[in-house]
Write a structure and sequence with these properties.
- The chain has no helices and 5 strands.
- It has 90 residues and is mainly β.
- The protein has a single domain, classed as OB fold (Dihydrolipoamide Acetyltransferase, E2P).
- It is globular.
Amino acid sequence: MGTPTIKTTGNGTINAIRHVWIDSTPTRFAMILPDDGHSRLAVRISPHLTVDGRDCFQVGDKVKYTVLTGPTGEFPRVQDLAKSADTNTV
């Protein structure tokens, strides 16, 4: 019997967005500083654009996320990244 997956939700602020190449594919990661003081999270984000052509996620945005913790030895995964109601864009 496997260990159950544990879901934990959190809030934080995007404090950097990094462009990274993975196997010749450009990918973007948002570096999130959690409000609870835990270590920064790196979350892969897609290039979603707003109606006026701007990136959906920007440095300074307040976000909510879900962390999935699986069996021992697996790295935790972050999913469901979404802007919080009070967003600060710079």
